[in-house]
């Protein structure tokens, strides 16, 4: 298989490439990434010399560049590339529409034109909006996004659906809960809290810290996408979740406990606009149809994640210092906001 992975230098995309090359060493993978602030070439150091791996820098919204990639012949596409940080979408919504909506349409059109046999669109549970204290998101839950980020992802999901229904494109959508694990950019909750706790710095938590998310170790997400790529039914949506609901405050306290740091480091700050209260995923469809289930209990996953960040201080330091962007092609990295 010759596989195009968009956004493959990002957190989930890079973990997916590493996973796929381990599992299918004969596959050819083209990593197409613009290398914005969240795209880190360091994530893929271990496969740069792999004969089946190649990297192309480019924008998914650049029709000419995308056409060049597809003209080389592709069997399938796994589409991760997206602006994904909610706080940034509040500050600059237009960037999210351009990349997540317009960019996805460019890819879909190229996939249609060149007869790609499978297009996996990686989305998010945030398109469903906010849950009450009970219940779970199913694939039939109406879309009700509450932030510019989630609205842009919902828009891209609807475009994928339209290309399936109008043009017969063999596309599938996955909607996953919050991921954590190695190589996650340190503006996100878990790596941010780990890096601050290690240094004994205050840990900023939005509002009362009781916002609930369902957490999934990134390798489990990769295994789910693998199954959907090879066996998912065209036109279907598959929810992917870890059945690990935790409040942000529970996550932060777990990190502090693992690192032997005091809870006095927790600092509550003003909540962000449009902050959804709770997400919860019903992943029974992918379990029943494709036999997927997560391999990592949260307790194991969080310990391994903390251990990885503690044993890779140079990776984090290169982001904080901006050294990972020494080629000057984009903005330097920066630590993000609260949980």
TrEMBL record:
Its EC number is 4.2.1.46. GO terms for molecular function: dTDP-glucose 4,6-dehydratase activity. One of its GO terms (biological process) is nucleotide-sugar metabolic process. InterPro entries: dTDP_Gluc_deHydtase, NAD(P)-bd_dom, NAD(P)-bd_dom_sf. It catalyses: dTDP-alpha-D-glucose = dTDP-4-dehydro-6-deoxy-alpha-D-glucose + H2O. It comes from the Bacteria. Keywords: Lyase, NAD. Residues 4-305 form the NAD(P)-binding domain. Its cofactor is NAD(+). It is an enzyme of class 4 (lyase). NCBIfam families: dTDP_gluc_dehyt (TIGR01181). Belongs to the NAD(P)-dependent epimerase/dehydratase family. dTDP-glucose dehydratase subfamily. This is dTDP-glucose 4,6-dehydratase. It comes from Paenibacillus aurantius.
């Amino acid at each position: 298989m010759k596989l195009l992975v968009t956004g493959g230098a990002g957190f989930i995309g890079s973990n997916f490439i590493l996973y796929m090359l381990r599992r299918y060493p004969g596959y050819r993978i083209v990593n197409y990434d613009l290398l914005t602030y969240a795209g880190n070439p360091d994530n893929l150091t271990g496969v740069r010399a792999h004969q089946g791996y190649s990297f192309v820098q480019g924008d998914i919204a650049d029709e000419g560049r995308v056409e060049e990639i597809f003209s080389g012949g592709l069997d399938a596409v796994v589409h991760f590339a997206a602006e994904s940080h909610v706080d940034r979408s509040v500050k600059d919504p237009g960037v999210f529409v351009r990349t997540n909506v317009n960019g996805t349409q460019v890819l879909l059109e190229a996939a249609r034109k060149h007869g790609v046999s499978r297009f996996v669109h990686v989305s998010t549970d945030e398109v469903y909006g906010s849950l009450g204290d009970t219940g779970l998101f199913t694939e039939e839950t109406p879309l009700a996004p509450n932030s510019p980020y989630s609205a842009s992802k919902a828009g891209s999901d609807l475009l994928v659906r339209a290309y399936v229904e109008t043009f017969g494109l063999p596309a599938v959508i996955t909607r996953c809960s919050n991921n954590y694990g190695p190589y996650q950019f340190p503006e996100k909750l878990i790596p941010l809290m780990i890096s601050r706790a290690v240094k004994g710095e205050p840990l900023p938590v939005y509002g009362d810290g009781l916002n609930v998310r369902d957490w999934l170790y990134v390798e489990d997400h990769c295994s789910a996408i693998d199954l959907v790529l090879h066996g998912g039914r065209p036109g279907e949506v598959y929810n992917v979740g870890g059945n690990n609901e935790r409040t942000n405050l529970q996550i932060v306290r777990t990190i502090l406990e693992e690192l032997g740091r005091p809870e006095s480091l927790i600092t509550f700050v003003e909540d962000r606009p449009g902050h959804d209260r709770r997400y919860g995923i019903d992943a029974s469809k992918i379990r029943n149809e494709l036999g997927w289930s997560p391999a990592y209990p949260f307790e194991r996953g969080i310990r391994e994640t903390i251990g990885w960040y503690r044993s890779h201080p140079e990776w984090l330091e290169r982001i904080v210092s901006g050294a990972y962007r020494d080629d000057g092609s984009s903005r330097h990295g920066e630590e993000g906001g609260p949980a």
